Amino acid sequence: MRTRCSAPGPTAKADHQLLPQRSLAKTACYGLHLDKNRMPQVAIDVRAETNGWGVAEYGALGYHAGKLVGNRVPYFRGIRPEPDQLKALGAAMAATGAVALYHVEGITPDAQKYRYDVSALETIPVEGKEIQEIFSDIPVDAVALGCPHCSPAELAEIARLLAGKVVTKPLYVFAAQGVIDKNARVVDSIEKTGARVFADTCMVVSPVMEQYASVMVNSGKALAYVPNMCGGKARIGTLAECIAVATEF
Asked: Could you say which residues of the chain have pLDDT below 50?
């Protein structure tokens, strides 16, 4: 297997040591730039009916899996996530564990390129019941979406679900400024319902979220971070459930 390094070099120990590599568009051959360090270290067999899973379910899976694998490189079987769902899965695993890289059989680049033999690895089964138990119905004071930041597709789905409705509970949506600028009409339609869209910040570091005792999210990452960083309880739900709670009378 080839490495992802442009040229060999010493391991960087400080930011200033990276400057020559940035200037030359090269980097040191170390860490996850090396294929040998990207090899799967644990297999996760998802034994659940995942058809119909969305960002929230994959976020819940990541929330659970991060606790199981720690800082190892997991190899998932039994799931077929789309890009936004991959984002949710990875972000949640980094929040509850220390997962810097993961593979999904037949989906992620390395898993498509290489025929990894995971037969000798520890295999952790994950049942659908384990994921469903992460969801709850505790009452909440606000709803927050976009952790990680919403993609254009997610903004469009939020707008679709909000169409014809008015927000009755504080609803915060977070996205990158560039995404907001390129989807101005969608953002405008979201904000006309009473929701607020914030650029280039995260709900878990935003002071506005600290005023609420409980927050509903559709993110496994936020589910992990809100209690410690915002000081409130967190409840995870699907995007549709979040919008329903934010607009209920």
From this structure: 1-14
User: Is residue 217 a contact partner of residue 243, using CB atoms and an 8 Å limit?
Assistant: no
Distance CA 233, CA 239 (A): 18
Give the pairing of strands 196-199 and 123-127: unpaired
Q: Nearest 5 degrees, angle CA 131-CA 75-CA 216?
A: 30
Rg of the chain taking only CA atoms, in angstroms: 20
Helices 239-247, 55-69: axis angle to 10 degrees equals 120
Q: What is the three-class DSSP state of 151?
A: coil
For residue 199, CA distances in Å to 12, 85, 161, 172, 249 come to: 32, 21, 21, 11, 28
Yes or no: say if 134 and 236 are a contact pair by the CB < 8 Å rule: yes
Beta-bridge mates of residue 175: 199
**Phi, then psi, of 153 in degrees rounded to 5:** -65, -40
